[in-house]
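Quick one:
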Amino acid sequence: MAKQEKEKERRSVVPWRPFAEMARWEQGMERMFDDFFGRRLRPIWDERWWPSRSADISVPFVDLYEEKDEIVAEVELPGMGKDDIQVNITDHLLTIKGEKKKEEEIKEEDYYRSERAFGSFTRTLELPRAVQVEKAKASFKNGVLEIRLPKTEEAKRKEIKVKVD
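Output:
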């Protein structure tokens, strides 16, 4: 039974991305085609006429780890402000929502390249231990959201010293 619980804890920290490998292949192929064709066609291939694929915002990268008395989540949210982020905790789930908005209106014909991503996202993580929801704290600094969730007394690991004879 303990082995199953450890496996569940390990899986809850790693996000499930069934198509991640395909996305990496696609990005690699795009880079390869750009390297091969891009240099040769650059003088006649203006991206204003043949735009590259637009970048949509994807789910943010998260580090979720356990300290002695807390579960800590660090979320990368570059280019966002703290007013654009919402954090919710329900049962054993931590949900982070946000929206990155374009601030200025610029006509497309004035652009040479537009690669920054805008849009909304939702990311939900299963927490590996029970936490005290009412004592949760979040801070946002330099594009990184840090959420600290104190564990319940039952969830804290108890260390027992065993005397060796």
